[in-house]
Amino acid sequence: MSEEKQILDEPPPSYESLYGKIKRAKVESDNNVGFFRTVAGLLFASVGCTICLVMVLAIPVANIVIGALYRDKCPLERFIPIYLIVSGAVGIVYNVFGILRKLAKSRNGEGEEEEDRPGVFTSICNCLFGCFLFAWFIAGNVWIYSNYDDWSKDPSHVDKYCHPTCYLYAFWTTTAVYIMTGATIVLGCCSACIAACCSCFQD
């Protein structure tokens, strides 16, 4: 009886975990097709989050590595390698800080309203990191794009030379930010239009 009582007294699994979500989908699904569809969506979302996490940490690391390797090989603009190193280092700290905060939040329990409110120190750190990264990104734009017409791959052009790997990496990673921002805006507008059309048809 003591073992049965202990099992009954155990709290149910958190629905925020993958196991909890699958168990909830089993209870809420009307048939096996709906259940497998929900599970496939959960697994896809989990894999997608893992890929995004790897990318979020891999890009800052690549920034540091490339900036350090070609730190003295960009006389065209000596701040381009420095821009990569600093943005990579601050990006890693910012992302790791956010991951640790979420892990601590999940351990303390996410159902409580108090846990959903970030502390003053956390809010100040997030604000400072965000403002610095934005300002540093703008500075990197100036250093990279303002020298695009003068850039030369030929080392004999001493004043205009910047190693192609360093410059092209900085150029395309910076440009990718604008591409992803534009794609996000377009997808958001399309989703809003589709939702509006669907609501009109339902009415």
Rg calc: 24 Å
Briefly note the structural class of the backbone: mainly alpha
DSSP summary: helix tally: 6
Silhouette: extended
Biggest sheet: strands, sense, closure?
Answer: none
Terminal CA distance reads: 57 Å
Number of domains: 1
Q: Based on DSSP secondary structure assignment, what is the total number of beta strands?
A: 0
Helix content: over 70%
Compressed to H and E, one letter per element, the order equals: HHHHHH
Unreliable spans are 1-8, 10-16, 110-116
Q: Please state roughly what percent of the residues sit in beta strands, choosing from under 5%, 5-15%, 15-25%, 25-35%, 35-45% or over 45%.
A: under 5%
Q: What is the averaged pLDDT score?
A: 76
Can you tag this structure with a few keywords?
mainly alpha, TMEM272, Transmembrane protein 272, transmembrane, disordered N terminus, 6 helices, membrane, transmembrane helix, 203 residues
Précis, in short:
The chain is mainly alpha-helical and 203 residues long.
Give a structural overview.
- Keywords: Membrane, Transmembrane, Transmembrane helix.
- The chain crosses the membrane at residues 42-70, 82-100, 120-145, 166-188.
- This is Transmembrane protein 272.
- The protein is mainly alpha-helical.
- The chain has one domain (2-202).
- Helix content is 75%, strand content 0%.
- It contains six helices and no strands.
- The N and C termini lie far apart (57 Å).
List the helices and strands and how they pair.
Layout: H1 2-9, H2 18-28, H3 32-69, H4 79-108, H5 120-145, H6 164-202
Helix pairs in contact: 2-3, 3-4, 4-5, 5-6
